[in-house]
Design brief:
The chain is an alpha+beta fold. Helix content is 34%, strand content 13%. It is built from 18 helices and 19 strands. Strands 3-4-2-1-5-10-7-11 form an 8-stranded mixed β-sheet, with helices on both faces. The chain binds 2-acetamido-2-deoxy-beta-D-glucopyranose (2 copies). One of its GO terms (cellular component) is membrane. Its EC number is 2.4.1.122.
């Protein structure tokens, strides 16, 4: 009995170390680390084994512009020698180099899917009446992987550590003084509580618009002085969304050491200007000259006499450095998925910017991007095309009719035409709500089909006319006017009117839309100007 027990103990004493040794040996060759202990108790700091992600290398290179601009080194580069702390995750958390305008931000691993953004400076123009509605969502999505960006506004404030500068603080006193455009600017500064409560009883939208035009020229001047070392300076509004892979791809063929001023053209009495909400982009060389030949005081005065800051910026670039703007439409785009007119002008092109997005829409596009990345086998989805927005946002909602709905919204007028009866004496045509009806009415002598004669009389008559006009892909009827379009888009709900005749009724030629799409076939992807 005793002998057996001794025997058994001997077997245990001999075998356990052998089993343990085999286990250690197998674990070691299995994944190259001594993985016998839970990772947080590991004897070696696990981050020694983790290679820095590519994005981190990119973020380091941005510290140069900061040093140049602020004259001091970034205060919080990650500490390479950090001792292992119990309960920290095994992978080291990388952070963007901090600067005085941005809070400390961890680098999201998903940023590794984006191209190098370290040569691009994003400049967001906003106003204190909208900052808290728009920016927090942008921080969580579109700006999340940017090593650096600047925010210019009409009041200095901090949004959870993101600092917003008042670009109007140096606007000439003689321009501000006695100038109603600056009433909001003055009220914002004297507000004792939150801005929403202070501006509740005023027409903030209109006032913010009037103030906005004083910002563009000054913000270009100031951003170059603060950050002189970037290749590209992208100026957007707080409700603009950038799809970074396409933006980087679009800029790739161009030399930042040459003068460039890219945007999306909007016609005006001063010629085509680069629309601000769509976003416009200046090269290093153009920014440098613009700043060197800066005449911000002159344009402080000029702003009083013009509607809009983006128009003024295009004029200023032309006058100061003799540089003409370049149209990158529709890749640079002033619309968004629900209001972008799909059709002959907008289908196969890659999309880099969208505009007028609510926070809900920004979040939705960002999630769509993440899903495309997750679905792509190598994490690199094909370039996002305008038609991809159709499939994601419009196709699942396409029906033949919606009541209290406006699918026309506003349009490039060459693709829209109207039917109405100018002989109808019951209507005040001089004050008819939408004068575009009258400018673009289809003349009876141009009618090719009998159905067009009655198109204005009812929604059903409008639909019947659309059915026989080959190019009509959607239509809308309201108040004895029928509108047709070669484009198709979802549009927006409208207020429900009591009077049946005044209700907005929208329809789509679903079969013709599906045929038009089938006829387009595969897209040949081409970036503008490439
Ligand atoms: C503007 O400044 C640059 C120097 O950065 C200079 O080379 C250029 O000639 C100036 N004038 C114009 C009209 O560009
Ligand atoms: C991702 O793949 C799933 C499954 O195939 C599909 O249902 C979904 O539509 C895809 N999403 C995108 C954005 O491509």
């Amino acid at each position: 009995m005793l002998l057996r027990q001794v025997h058994f103990t001997a077997i245990i004493v001999v075998c356990i170390p052998i089993i343990f040794a085999v286990f250690v040996f197998v674990s070691y060759f299995h994944d190259g680390t001594l993985n016998v202990l839970p990772s947080h108790l590991s004897l070696r700091p696990s981050h020694d084994d983790v290679k820095p992600p590519a994005q981190n290398a990119a973020s380091h290179s941005t510290s140069a512009p900061q040093v140049a601009a602020t004259g001091k080194a970034p205060s919080n580069v990650e500490n390479e020698e950090a001792p292992p702390v119990i309960n920290t995750p095994a992978t080291e958390q990388k952070v963007f180099p901090q600067n005085e305008w941005l809070p400390a931000r961890p680098i999201d691993p998903s940023c590794a899917h984006l191209p190098d953004l370290s040569k691009i400076l994003l400049i967001i123009k906003t106003g204190a009446s909208e900052t808290f509605d728009r920016l927090p969502t942008q921080f969580m999505t579109m700006t999340r992987c940017l090593p650096d960006f600047l925010i210019f506004s009409d009041m200095e404030e901090s949004i959870m550590g993101y600092r917003v500068q008042d670009v109007l603080k140096d606007t000439l006193e003689e321009v501000k003084h006695d100038n109603g455009d600056f009433n909001l600017w003055r009220r914002q500064q004297s507000c004792l509580v939150d801005q929403k409560s202070c501006q509740k009883w005023s027409n903030v939208g209109g006032e913010a618009w009037n103030l906005d035009k004083y910002k563009n020229v000054r913000q270009s001047d100031l951003s170059y002085r603060m950050r002189p070392n970037y290749d590209w300076y992208i100026h957007i509004d707080a409700d603009t969304y950038i799809h970074w892979p396409n933006m980087v791809e679009m800029l790739k063929p161009f030399d930042a050491q040459k003068d460039h001023f890219f945007g999306s053209f909007e016609p005006s009495q001063y010629g085509d200007f680069n629309h601000g909400g769509s976003g416009y982009i200046l090269s290093q060389s153009a920014m440098k000259k613009f700043q060197a030949n800066s005449s911000v005081e002159h344009f402080d005065h000029e702003a009083r006499n013009i509607c809009c800051g983006d128009m003024l910026m295009t004029i200023a670039v032309r006058e100061n450095i003799a540089l003409a703007n370049t149209n990158m439409f529709p890749t640079i785009n002033g619309r968004k998925p629900f209001t972008l007119p799909f059709g002959p002008r907008q289908w196969c092109q890659p999309i880099a910017t969208l505009h007028k997005l609510t926070s809900e829409e920004v979040a939705s596009i960002w999630e769509f991007e993440q899903e495309r990345i997750a679905n792509a086998t190598d994490g690199k989805p094909a370039p996002l095309l305008i038609k991809d927005l159709y499939y994601q946002y419009f196709a699942p909602r396409l029906v033949d009719k919606l009541e209290d709905w406006d699918n026309m919204y506003d349009d490039y007028l060459t693709n829209v035409w109207y039917y109405l009866d100018k002989d109808d004496k019951s209507k005040d045509w001089e004050h008819f709500p939408d004068q575009k009806y009258i400018w673009h009415q289809r003349k009876p002598e141009d009618f090719k089909h009998d159905e067009e004669k009655k198109a204005h009389t009812s929604f059903n008559a409008c639909k019947k006319a659309c059915d026989v006009v080959d190019e009509c892909l959607q239509f809308r009827w309201q108040d004895d006017a029928c509108a047709m379009s070669k484009n198709f888009r979802l549009g927006n709900p409208t207020e429900k009117r009591e009077n049946q005749k005044e209700r907005w009724m929208s329809g789509w030629a679903v079969k013709k839309i599906e045929k038009w799409i089938a006829d387009q076939g595969e897209c040949k992807v081409q970036f503008p100007g490439a």
